[in-house]
């Protein structure tokens, strides 16, 4: 729906625009966007919807890349692409692919999804990022681990 991007623009009006990327948007996306623009006209013309794979989207160091419920490998793609660009990133992973994801050898100590997300956090830190790990209330979503990263070089 692009709801997160639109809420981010409402919370931080200093960002000029948001790009919402998905392989396919639900039919209600347009209606949600129109309702939000009607309630908050300052969103008009500031949100672009692109049907595409994340791999095809150019990123820069000035971008903030956010992905909520990035299923399976998509979380890894978002993190890797953000690191390649030197962009800030925040992900809320879900749908962990236990057979194909890197659990960093930690699955003997913790459940698979936590091992995968811990390994992702460590990789981000190894790439020179300062990381923050948080959880959101499980009543909102049971997939509630939030991983945030910013390049160390970009921090004041």
Q: What labels would you give this structure?
A:
156 residues; four-stranded mixed beta sheet; alpha/beta; 6 strands; two-stranded parallel ribbon; globular
Describe the structure.
The chain has 156 residues and is an alpha/beta fold. It contains four helices and six strands. Strands 3-4-6-5 form a four-stranded mixed β-sheet, with helices on one face. Strands 1-2 form a two-stranded parallel sheet. The longest helix is centred in the C-terminal third of the chain and has 15 residues. The termini are far apart. The model has no long low-confidence stretch (mean pLDDT 92).
Strand order of the largest sheet: 3-4-6-5
What pattern of helices and strands is seen along the backbone? HEHEEHEHEE
Low-confidence stretches: none
Mean pLDDT: 92
Radius of gyration (CA) equals 16 Å
Quick structural gist:
The protein has 156 residues and is of the alpha/beta class. The chain contains four helices and six strands.
Write the layout of secondary structure elements.
Blueprint: H1 3-11, E1 18-22, H2 28-39, E2 47-51, E3 64-71, H3 73-85, E4 88-94, H4 112-126, E5 129-135, E6 145-151
Parallel strand pairs: 1-2, 3-4
Antiparallel strand pairs: 4-6, 5-6
């Amino acid at each position: 729906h692009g709801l997160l991007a639109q809420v981010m623009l409402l919370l931080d009006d200093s960002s000029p625009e948001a790009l919402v990327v998905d392989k396919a948007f639900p039919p209600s996306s347009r209606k949600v966007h129109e309702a939000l623009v009607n309630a908050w006209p300052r969103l008009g013309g500031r949100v672009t919807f692109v049907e595409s794979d994340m791999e095809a989207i150019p990123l820069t160091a000035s971008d903030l890349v956010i992905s909520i419920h990035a299923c399976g490998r998509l979380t890894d793609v978002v993190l890797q692409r953000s690191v390649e660009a030197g962009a800030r990133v925040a992900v809320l992973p879900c749908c962990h692919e236990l057979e194909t994801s890197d659990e960093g050898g930690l699955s003997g100590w913790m459940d698979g999804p936590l091992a995968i997300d811990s390994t992702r956090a460590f990789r981000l830190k190894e790439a020179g990022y300062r990381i923050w790990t948080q959880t959101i209330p499980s009543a909102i979503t049971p997939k509630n681990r939030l991983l945030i990263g910013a390049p160390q070089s970009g921090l004041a």
